[in-house]
Every structure is written in structure tokens, then in C-alpha cells.
Specification:
With about 280 residues, the chain is an alpha/beta fold. The protein has three domains: about 1-60; about 70-115; about 135-165 and about 190-275, Ribonuclease H-like superfamily/Ribonuclease H (Nucleotidyltransferase, domain 5, 2-Layer Sandwich). It has helices spanning about 1-5, 10-25, 30-35, 40-55, 55-60, 70-85, 90-100, 105-115, 135-150, 215-230, 245-255, and strands at about 155-160, 195-200, 205-210, 235, 260. It has a five-stranded mixed β-sheet, covered by helices on one side. Helix 2 (about 10-25) packs antiparallel against helix 3 and helix 2 (about 10-25) packs across helix 4 (about 40-55). It starts with a helix and ends in a 16-residue tail after the last strand.
Length: about 280
């Protein structure tokens, strides 16, 4: 039995053999149950199995499994319901199943059922709420054509403005218990205004800082791009902010035909590659 215990790979089988060995050493049922963290009736059952079937009976799997509370057709109804509605907890699904089918599940039981039905607990994917999927698909197709048809000298720039708050943000770090570390912060809500353009082919970003992000700062950015790229078309892809469509900027573009404006679809920050920067 000791050799069999040594060769046991599963703890539950090893505990059954231990129970019989401990009875053989003179310990009582309750005492063994306390040592092995089980009830004394279980210990008695293992001893009786050993007497009738030997060690082979102890290492036999007694679990037969059970039938799920929900029938197959009820499981399909649950799957269809969960595809339409997302619950924040298994407890809420237990409540719905009780109302719908009159069958009670524990949270652990429902969690196991959900795993068997190929569901997992994860966050939904956030997408722009007002975006037009067809317009986004059309832009992606047009962007692919632009990349294929442009000359070697032509360059593409994704543009956007941002307004970082000029204050530190505390992150996590290893700090000794009982002590505090402090980071000085600014007293106001001062922000800096950055207008930038990102070239996805070269990986380079051109950024300017200004008092405001407006048509004037956009023209300043385009002038910086022109100096950086003296030849070829400048394919400038911004969002639909008002300063990118102002009269001042349109007048500037009329005198700078190298610059080609290609606007992103409305509510499509996911398509603007500078957002990742």
C-alpha cells in the first residue's frame, strides 16, 4: 500500500490509502478525519471499500457525473439570450434562469455551465458609438488605393491635436510599508496644446506646440512638413475638427497644391494612426 501511495499521481486517491494506513496504525476515525480534512463517515467508507475490494477499489473513481438541470433545448434558449444581453455576474443569470425555467442554480454551478456553453468572463470591446461602419470600410479601401498609387516621393501624414494636462499622474511602484512617497504637482489645470502629424511609413512624427490648436497652428505644422519633405505630394489625413476645415486653411491650400487633404470619416479615431502615438 505504501508503494501504491508513492506512485499515486492524484491526491484524492493518495488520501484514501492514507486513511486505511492510519487505521492500521491504531488511529480512530474522527482523528483521521481531522488530519485529512474530511468527515469520519468518508473514512469509514474508504475502509469498507478496502476490505471488500482491496487497494484497487480505493483508486477507483466513484464520480459518475450528473445530468444538467437545463435540458438541451433550454440550454439553446439560454445561449440565444446571452448573445443578445450581457450580464455582469453569474448570479444575475441564475435569477433569469429561475424566472424563465423555474430551475435553481448556485453561482458555482452556473459558472461551470457557462464555461461548458463556451462563454467566458471578459470585457466588451469599446467602439465609437456614432461611427458609420460603411463609411469606415470605404475610407480603408480608399486609403489602400492611395498607398498603392502614390509615387516614391509622396508621403502620407495622419494629423490630430491633443491637449495633455500639465500635471503628473501617479503610478504603482515598490514602496516600503509604513512610508509614503510624494510627487509634487502643479496647483492649476494648465494644459499644453500640441498639433502633430505622423508618417506611418517612416514612423516619424512632426509636432508643434502653440497657445491654441487652430488654423494658424495647422498651417505652421504644414509648413514644417513642407520643409521636411521638399518634393512629392503631402497627403494630409486629419479628423473633422473645425480648424481643419476653416476658410483660412482652405485659402492656404489653394496656394499649396502639393498638399492633398483626405478627411477621416466622422467619429473614427480608431482609423487615425496618430492616436496610437
Amino acid at each position: 500500500m505504501k508503494r501504491q501511495h508513492k506512485n499515486c499521481r492524484e491526491r484524492r486517491y493518495a488520501d484514501r490509502i492514507k486513511a486505511v494506513l492510519m487505521i492500521n496504525s491504531g488511529l480512530g476515525f474522527e482523528e483521521i478525519a481531522n488530519y485529512l480534512l474530511m468527515d469520519d463517515d468518508t473514512v469509514r467508507r474508504y475502509v469498507e471499500i478496502y476490505r471488500q475490494e482491496g487497494v484497487s477499489g480505493l483508486i477507483r473513481d466513484f464520480y459518475k457525473g450528473g445530468s444538467p438541470l437545463l435540458k438541451i433545448e433550454e440550454q439553446y434558449i439560454l445561449i440565444a439570450h446571452l448573445r443578445k444581453k450581457t450580464y455582469l455576474s453569474a448570479k444575475e443569470i441564475c435569477f433569469w434562469v429561475k424566472l424563465k425555467f423555474g430551475k435553481s442554480y448556485t453561482v458555482a454551478g452556473m459558472t461551470s455551465l457557462l464555461h461548458r456553453l463556451n462563454f467566458s468572463y471578459k470585457k466588451p470591446k469599446i467602439v465609437p458609438g456614432k461611427a458609420n461602419p460603411e463609411a469606415q470600410k470605404q475610407f480603408i479601401a480608399e486609403y489602400s488605393k492611395i498607398k498603392q498609387n502614390k509615387s516614391v516621393k509622396d508621403q502620407i501624414y495622419f494629423a490630430d491635436g491633443c491637449h495633455p494636462l500639465l500635471n503628473p499622474l501617479a503610478g504603482y511602484g515598490w514602496i516600503e510599508k509604513g512610508t509614503e512617497k510624494e510627487i509634487p504637482s502643479n496647483t492649476g489645470r494648465e494644459r499644453i496644446n500640441l498639433n502633430g502629424a505622423y508618417n506611418p511609413e517612416t514612423g516619424e512624427a512632426l509636432i508643434i506646440e502653440s497657445e491654441q490648436i487652430n488654423a494658424q497652428s495647422t498651417i505652421e505644422l504644414l509648413e514644417k512638413i513642407k520643409k521636411k519633405q521638399p518634393n512629392g505630394k503631402i497627403i494630409f489625413i486629419p479628423d473633422n475638427a473645425r480648424y481643419y476645415r476653416s476658410r483660412l486653411l482652405k485659402g492656404y491650400l489653394e496656394n499649396n497644391t502639393r498638399i492633398v487633404m483626405k478627411y477621416l470619416p466622422p467619429y473614427s479615431p480608431n482609423l487615425n494612426l496618430i492616436e496610437r502615438l
